[in-house]
Amino acid sequence: MADQTSDIKALTFDVFGTVVDWHGSVAREVRALAAEKGLRVNAVKFTKAWRAGYRPAMDRVRSGELPWTLIDVLHRMILDELLVKFKIADALTEDEKAHLNRVWHRLKPWPDSPRGLKRLKQKFIMATLSNGNTGLLVNMAKNGNLPWDCIFSSETFHHFKPDPEMYLGAADALDLKPEEVMMVASHKHDLRAAAKHGLKTAFIKRPHEYGRNNNPDLESEPEFTYNAESFLDLADQLGT
Amino acid sequence: MADQTSDIKALTFDVFGTVVDWHGSVAREVRALAAEKGLRVNAVKFTKAWRAGYRPAMDRVRSGELPWTLIDVLHRMILDELLVKFKIADALTEDEKAHLNRVWHRLKPWPDSPRGLKRLKQKFIMATLSNGNTGLLVNMAKNGNLPWDCIFSSETFHHFKPDPEMYLGAADALDLKPEEVMMVASHKHDLRAAAKHGLKTAFIKRPHEYGRNNNPDLESEPEFTYNAESFLDLADQLGT
Lengths: 240, 240
Prior knowledge:
Two copies of one chain form a homodimer.
Chain A: H1 2-5, E1 10-13, E2 20-21, H2 22-37, H3 43-52, H4 54-62, H5 71-85, H6 94-101, E3 108-109, H7 113-121, E4 125-130, H8 134-144, E5 150-153, H9 154-157, H10 164-173, E6 181-185, H11 188-196, E7 200-204, E8 226-228, H12 231-237
Parallel strand pairs in A: 1-4, 1-6, 4-5, 6-7, 7-8
Antiparallel strand pairs in A: 2-3
């Protein structure tokens, strides 16, 4: 694969799941909040339900049913429904709800992320390409020591992945050809959408994205430009 | 002034002149190119004329006379006119012209910039807020070791400073109130526009922005939140 490397100028990263551990981070905060307030909540179920609401909410925007809406606001819409469903809506103050909603700004990186990204940064332009909003991604990077050169978010392009405007918008904003950009993600559907528009692809295996005792699809695929066990492995393969 | 510091969450930076030395960087490359090609060009006059074309070109976009246009393209329009005016248009190949146009991606930081920005980054969100385009600012940061958390450019908001959309857009994208953001610039008109929309302001003195033997306005002004001799001085004043 080494012959492909020299063309690649920029890496664009999916963030939730690929760079940071949303499942562990959210479940931990939900568990701590429940303990503090004396509430009975299954933190893992709560976390999975919150994340499960994310794609349908984005699809409502993508279809035009909702106007352009930031992820922070979509997260809050889903949260408010969940608090009712889990029967804890009345137990939390507005400040507590607002703080909980911003847990997505405080997601913790996977252990290899800060060091792996720093190595990759020596050779490539490093940009997020996330459905999160800009402020969320900036705060997360400050909290987690993520050395981005550039934040591209759904807010930058007013589109959500897998809309082509995201992948092509990033290449265009960097004044690069699509094939000079490589999408890096732990989700095959994201990579396949990127490849459809001419970007190169790197699949990162994140066995615990949905917590332990899950069986995510971790098979390497020859269709992807690279398949890697971690960012450190990807840096090795890219010679940086 | 120390009582104001605690409210400030993010610093937004003008780039050309404030962070990087456009005059010295462009003049140096023009001089080198002229030597290489055996051309007689007054590099200082050429550089000043190129920069002088910048604001009128942006104003043509701001007034609606031109549609939305990236600075890279405006720089090239001005360059093509200048090459004719300086009678060297036929002496350069298209590749040489394209390379020269990208000198704005290669502007060198002032000596205090990398270290001063790194100190400020320990306490604040650090964003560009420049009329440059995104790719230009990303390349410049890679070349010059400028540790931005976030690139905001005219391309982000499809406006040029001093349009309010730039100042308020940056605060909004960071989910901050205008008064939690401080505009940092070596140009008083930029700071006055930012202040009009509620941002705090820091004036940085750059005596050699237009080269030596100039008399720029370097007076401190009580209307600005801070007045500083350099980024290191600003970091001292902000306690970081």
